[in-house]
Write a structure and sequence with these properties.
Number of domains: 3
Structural class: mainly alpha
Helix content: 55-70%
Number of helices: 7
Shape: globular
Distance between the termini: 66 Å
Strand order of the largest sheet: 1-2
Radius of gyration: 23 Å
Length: about 190
């Protein structure tokens, strides 16, 4: 006998399910709120595929780093791919339980703001171009401040974010891992 606790808004319900019934799961075993929130969505397919593509692309680039500089990126890439795989497995299990794929594309893009999206994309492209010229620290400062001002983030939050990122980057990459960050051609790199 396996026990599951489903929290309801008014009270908690303990449901006993025979171990054999786990393999023939039916909608009637699901609480009403679970079914609506955890259905597989059409937007999950491209998101999962894009995250896998980014993860494997970063993995290929990480293999080009010196061996002593690969540890931290490999941990992050492994975590990214593992969480993405867990999410994919969760969505497949949800689909097997409900046999429903929700078409959420219209709902997902109902709040899409093209100026905001393409503005951030432009900042990212500028970041990649400037990285070679001005190096990591200056380019990251310009990118963070510029993109956050563009998104109308309060100035105090910008200052805290920039200071925290600079400190964290210096401590983790420069001081702890001894990873050389791009200096930029302007500064003799």
């Amino acid at each position: 006998m396996v026990f599951f606790i489903f929290a309801n808004e008014s009270k908690s319900i303990i449901t006993a399910i025979n171990a054999n019934s786990l393999f023939s799961f039916n909608k009637r075993h699901l609480p009403k709120r679970w079914d609506a929130r955890n259905r597989m969505k059409k937007s999950d397919f491209p998101v999962i595929a894009i995250i896998y593509a980014i993860g494997f692309w970063f993995l290929a680039m990480t293999m080009d780093l010196p061996e002593e500089a690969q540890t931290y990126p490999l941990v992050l890439i492994t975590a990214l791919l593992s969480v993405n795989t867990l999410y994919m497995v969760r969505q497949v299990i949800s689909w097997r339980k409900t046999r429903v794929i929700e078409n959420d594309v219209a709902k997902t893009f109902s709040t899409f703001i093209p100026v905001q999206f393409f503005g951030v994309v432009a900042f990212c492209v500028g970041y990649l171009i400037l990285m070679d010229l001005t190096g990591y620290y200056l380019t990251t400062f310009i990118y963070l401040v510029g993109s956050m001002l563009f998104l109308k983030v309060p100035k105090l939050h910008i200052a805290i974010t920039v200071a925290a990122m600079a400190l964290m980057t210096f401590l983790v990459f420069t001081w702890f891992l001894k990873v050389p960050l791009p200096v930029g051609t302007v500064f003799g790199g």
